Structures are given as C-alpha cells and as structure tokens.
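One chain given next:
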Amino acid sequence: MDKQTKLGLYQIMVLSRTFEEAILRDYHADKTPNWDIGAGLIPGEMHLSAGQEPVAAGICAHLTSDDAITATHRPHHLAIAHGVDLNKLAAEIFGRETGFGRGRGGHMHIFDPATHFSCSGIIAEGFPPALGQAFAFQRQNKKAVAVAVTGEGAANQGAFHESLNLASLWKLPIVFVVEDNDWAISVPRHSSTAISSNAQRALGYGIPGTRVEDNSVEEVWAQAKVAIERARSGGGPSLIEVHTVRLLGHFEGDAQAYRDDLEGLNGRDPIPLYAAQLTQEGILDAELIGKIASDAKGRVERAFDFAKASPMPSADNVSQYVFA
C-alpha cells in the first residue's frame, strides 16, 4: 500500500466517526425526561457503528458507484465510505423531505440508487438483494460486483446460507462480509454459534473464506482487493469475516449490562490506533491529524445544517412514496 492509500483509509474512518459523533450529539438533544425515542431532533432508534470503521474503509476503497453494497441496521460507516451524499444521508436520519427516502425510512432504511447502496433493519435481509444485484451484473456482462455485509449473529440465519449456496452455484460476482463485533445484539458467539469463525462456513459452499483479526484496516483492504478482483474477473464469490469492535451499545440507550469487555474498550478504538501507526510511519503528524479532523467536522456540520433546515414531511402526503 502506498502512503496516499493509507491516508485515504484514515480520512474515511475519521469522516465516519465525526458523522456519528454529530448524530450522538443531536440524537440526545431535546429528548423528553422519559427518553422518548420519538422525540427530539432525530426520531426513532439509533444504531451507531463506532469502532467498525475499518471494515467500511477497507472494503469500499475498491468499489465504485457502479458496484452495489447492502448494509445492516448499523449502516453509516458503509454508506459514507461508499460515497453516498452526506446531505441526503443526514436529512433522512433527521426525517426530512430532502432525505433519500423523503424522511420516511430513517437511518436503518437508506436507499441510494446513485451509488447502489441500501440497508435494512431486518437481520441478514441484505444478502438476497445483493445476490439479485450480482445476478443482474452477470447477466448484463458488467464488471460490477455486489458486496453484502452482515453481522456475525446474522450468519446463523437461513438467508445467509441460502445466499452463499446460490452464489457459489451460479458463480456470482459477489463478496460476503461478516462484521464480527463479538456481541451480535447481546449474546457472545460461543453462546449461539457452533464454530469459531464464519470464514469456515464459506468453505462448505465451495468458496474462499478468510478472517481478519485485530480490526486491521490495512488487512481488510488487502483481503478485499483479492476478493473483489476475483469477483470482477468471473472467479465467483468470496467471504471475508472481520473481527471488529463495537465501541457503543447495540442501540442508543443500551445499558450493556451483558458485556464483560467494557473495561479498556477505548484502548481498542481503531482510529487513534491507526493514527499512531501512520504517525510512526511518517505519514501523519499532529498538524495533518488536526486538519483532517477539521475538514471532516466542516463537511458533517454542513450536512447537518442542511438537514435541520429541510422541511418535515407533510401529514397530507403520508401515503406517498410508501407503496410501490
């Protein structure tokens, strides 16, 4: 990897974290004393991806807007890394008419046709649609690929296994990505899964499977390069599992009483760890770190200002854009 590539990975990670820090600030603003999730600037539940930025940065570095990606209910890092419009992303999260779904979908239902990005609140739901996109790319003789991202808990769902089987049978241009943050919702792997790595499951369907340890953005980048080039060249599907980290709760308000790894969790934060590595390599210094943070904050605040200034959906149009 050259220095510019490493710097780009760091910048994307910082932008994603900055965006979510702004969500966290405004999500808790003006909430009622009883913490009504329907109140405040940002309505509904909120699932943040802080700590999982290396997955998004490493995978999406190899994608273009012609490629498709389906994400989970924790989608912001992937959406941002894939290049969705920040204004429309913020507006959808705030429930405004200028959002991707005209404020009707919220943060778990982001759909951007311009970049072939989508996500869903249903566990493992993104795998079958990604399969369909890969099938369409194959039938159209395109070089585009689909990427389907899910969590390690969702890898026990039927949709996961059905999708791997069909992708292998049809040799589809797709890469399956599993974000293993240890906890699914609130259950550790050993309590729900019979094997130590979902990469082993890929082998059962005749496709390559690999596991990336230590939440390493550079290793994710390297493995994604191999898998995506394989898919583009007609070699068929691959699976990458990344042992990442969830720095926050499953959702905002999660007391996380089930976790035994909270002590020292901040020491696993991938952004300062990568900043330290790049500083040691002479790629970053304090001045550049500050500039990247300032640039990210400027972009995010402009997007949030756009969202806050946008109109709310009108009750007169409540049934529009809902039914096909």
Remarks:
- The first strand starts at residue 68 and ends at 71.
- Residues 30 and 40 are 5 Å apart (CA to CA).
- The chain has a mean pLDDT of 94.
